[in-house]
Specification:
GO terms for molecular function: DNA binding. The chain is α+β, with helices and mostly antiparallel strands. The chain has one domain (about 10-60). The protein has helices at about 10-20, 25-30, 55-60, and strands at about 10, 40, 50. The longest helix is centred in the middle third of the chain and has 10 residues, at about 25-30. The radius of gyration is 13 Å and the shape is globular.
């Protein structure tokens, strides 16, 4: 039996606040491939992304910051 782990998904704004950077910076990291994110279906003016909490936790626990 395979056990699924459900990871909390964070918005660009939530990640930006936790890293103390601007939303635009987080979006730039995602577009450049420096930060792994899930792309949601496009609705509205901007592309929507979600970042796994485990990805952010890994970054905060000593991972190299995105360039």
């Amino acid at each position: 039996m395979v056990e699924e782990t459900h990871d909390e998904l964070l918005t660009v704004r939530e990640v930006a606040r936790r890293l103390r950077v601007d939303d635009t910076t987080v979006r730039r990291w995602i577009k450049s491939g420096a930060l792994e994110a899930i792309t949601l279906p496009h609705r509205g003016k901007r592309q929507a992304y979600r970042i796994k909490k485990s990805t952010l936790d890994k970054l905060l626990s000593g991972g190299t910051p995105p360039a």
